[in-house]
Amino acid sequence: MKRRDFIQKAITASALPLVINGFPVEALADNPIVNFLGKAGAEDRVLVLIQLNGGNDGLNTVIPINQYTNLAKARQNILIQQSKVLALTGNINTGLHPSLSEVRGLYDNGLVNIVQSVGYPDPNFSHFRATDIWLTGSDSNVNEDSGWLGRYLDNKFPNFPTNYPSANYPDPPAIQIGALISPAMQGKNSSLGMSITDPTSFYQFITGTVDPAPNTPAGHELTYVRLVAQQTQQYSGTIKAAADKATNISTLYPTAGQNSLADQLKVVARLIAGGLKTQVYMVSLGGFDTHSAQTVANATETGNHAVLMQRISQAVNAFQDDLKKLAVDDRVLGMTFSEFGRRIKSNDSYGTDHGAAAPLFIFGKNVKPGITGNNPIIPATVSVNDNVPMQIDFRAIYASILKYWFKVSDSELSPLLLNKTFPLLDIIAGGSTSAAEFTEAKIGVLENYPNPATTQTTIKFTCSGGYVKIRLFDNIGREILTVTEDTYSRGTHEVILNTESLNNGTYYYQLQQGASQLMKTLIVAK
Amino acid sequence: MANINRKQFFQNFALETLDDKQLPVYPYKDPSNKELPTSLRKTSTGISEYTGPWGEEQIKHLCRRTLFGVTKADIDFFKTKTMVQAVDSILNISTTDPSPPLNHYSGNANQADADVPLGQTWVNAVDNPNLNGSRRSSFKAWWLSLMVNQDRTIKEKMNLFWHNHFATEANVVQSARTVYNHHKLLRQNCLGNFKTLNRLIATDPAMLIYLNGEQNTKTAPDENYGRELQELFTVGKDLPIYYTEDDVKAAARVMTGWRNSRTTYSSYFDSTRHDTTNKQFSSFYNNTVIVGKTGTNGATEVDDLMTMIFNHNEVAKHIARSIYRFFVYYNIDESVETNVIAPLATIFRNSNYNIKTLMDALLKSEHFYDSLNMGCVIKPPMDHLVGLARTFNLIFPDSTNVATQYGHYLYTQQVGILLGQDIGDAPNVAGWPAYYQSPQYYELWINSDSLPKRNQICDLLVYTGYNRSGFKLILDPIAFVSQFTSPEDPNLLINQITSLLFPIDLSSTSKTQVKTAFLLSGQSSDYYWSDVWNEYVAAPTNNTKKQAVYTRLQGMFKYLFGLAEFQLN
Q: B446, A125: Cβ pair inside 8 Å?
């Protein structure tokens, strides 16, 4: 039976017990055969990206409880009362915004991985540039045209859009719910994304004689419009058919029109369950640029940010519930992201200005649950410029998803990441073929003395042997210098960092070896 | 009445069923921009005054880029002028403010307005939180009506340019009166002095709300406006080296203390909230120090800030590039940068930032009329919608019933939302991505969601029309073709229509196909159409004879509107 037929029959039969090889599926819930069907191959796997436009305040989303004293000094007027923070099972030091109760439930049920302090060196504070960096996966100072998913899909759909759709690839490579296609889906030759708002209605384009396009800028644009018309026509049938095949089952979705994120995810669930082979979906929620009125005075668990948190929480929970009931949750991985976090220090208007690193959520049945990385360290004295330093490069998440979720080979992976290497993260259950990938490179100790330093300090570290890189960042996340980049033997090593040319202040040094990374604070005080 | 029922609105788009018919596969080699299509452009024309032929081709190009759409009457009007006279006329805008938007909403029981009677303007009334939404809708309907009923000048296009440049969101500003005042400011200065306009915007109440200037104080400076002032409004980030993060912070501190009065709807300076220390700027601004001032003198620091920024040559270049991308094409290669942008920027700077001088130089240049610059703009939604309304002289309700009149304009504005351009509510402070996002630019307007909707609104206006309160908004194809020379001649008629509708004309093969399929209903002789038309003209009140013409024209216009050529400007 072809996979599409299987799904189709599964959906049509959803009111009745589904039978495979004579056994009802309920009785087989944990049977390897069913799991095998669900995990048939990487091409069945779907990634759903949730873009939070505007820059989400990470410190009020995932709250570092063990930093409360210093947080209270830095952002008294917007900080969530400690008693109201939602505790996470098994993690006394980290909690969630009170409006994320459904996400907390998903976490406690092992469906969420929280990745801490995600960012990149030399953060950019412009919405537009920072968004481009996230969507393309480029370095901060590099302008890249193709999107990270566009590059991945380019390999699966060579020469797209020429000769697509085809018998083997009848469905669009990527779907954006909304009116504008994300640059993340921009491939080498064209965007691999298709934009839809209503999957059940499509327009019938007219067929007729087509005049040759002149070789001018006008001819160039004409050709583009014609192509969109042609593709819309070609893919509209398969999308409509998928939408018609499946119905949302979950009763947890808010009423349509109340929560735009939930409305979008509802469409995604329907298309996945309807059997589309599309691997990438993108949805978005705006309003995170909370310069003011992020919280209500003296009721910091309420306000604009709380509303946004609640929307995410309800939407993701309903979506996950729906996927489970539609029996496709095995195939779907979700991830939130935002172009940056916000400043540690709040402003007088109960808001926060543009910042740097922030946590994000990865969710789904096949997530390796838990918290990746450590709580950010909040200094005792926070200036208006201080930012949460990057702990995990966002491209490390991309690399791990590509490798462990989409099963991209090591040789293919490097070009997708623009020929850079990033440590892999243990975020996908059973993702790694060898647990050794995460354990072989181990950093034992990382410390420096004296600290605070005046003219120099010695950084001491223990490693398991191999390529080691230590970089120094300033308080707003700019990369200042590379302390060392070399191959070291197993054991303890020391490198000397000259601090004479550094201004007084707080710095962070990060050691990276293979999949492991560790960050410590360095104070320079002369 | 204030808002069109959303469900009903969507239902007005007739949904068509799909069949399995596939378009032929075309060998498109470069379907969308991965990078800027630099190889296409071979022009090296500059800004010397254009001296070539002044015919329909040039007139249509000027109209498409400076007005919304082009009408046959526009062409006839400008044919009597020289190029210089035509541009002078396009730039000779009215200095009178249009009469302000009206209360169209209070016929609706829950939108009763104790301060403003139905049909009177609300722009001088106090804000009413319950009515702000209705008044903002009134504002948008009114604005759309000004575009549809525009005169033959650049004023409406310039307003849209500045709305995109100093982008704000009415939904964020909330106060309808403040939204209106902001719009009026743009309108009054749209061809005035850019330095003045920029200074006015700096302390404009809507901008103080939108970019948090109101909350920007010495104890907690808010960088939002200080950043966008530099990144978007003036110097930009086009150069590899630009302003620094510290410049953003310094600009924010200069702007501390500006607040809004909720009673006068104007801004004022509160010296107790102002940071009186000196503000040090980076080498990008020649290490300028804006000296901190105390008391009411602190209010003049914003002028010092403007002086410092406008001393930078990049301001004129950044604006020249934005104007170019809005009015000419998005691709600025080396030749355009050297031969067009740089000299335009010099003219702009030397005129002390006079916008009219800049536009005059551009619109009279040989580069503007370069044939390679014709037809290469993908219509923004407003050009698609308002252009369609103007070209076909779409009749909106008159002012007899203000609710009905505004309702139809508001409907049209809301179709604009579906197509991706909600005037008054830009997506964010950078404006619409199609005007700035490299390398796709205009191509961002067109995707699998928006293109079908562009066609659906055309189909709706050709066939069923939009019915509301007893008034039907519908295209009149008979009136449209009647304005042409010898409409009974199908060949001549199609030539005149396609030449007006498309910047890239159809081939004679395609025209023959259109003629045969629609006007001749598959017959091969031209007299088939001529007879039908002449019979109608002889008995215009005979419904059967009228229908024979009408249905053929409907089919033809649906087809022509569905061609990709119709999306170009």
A: no
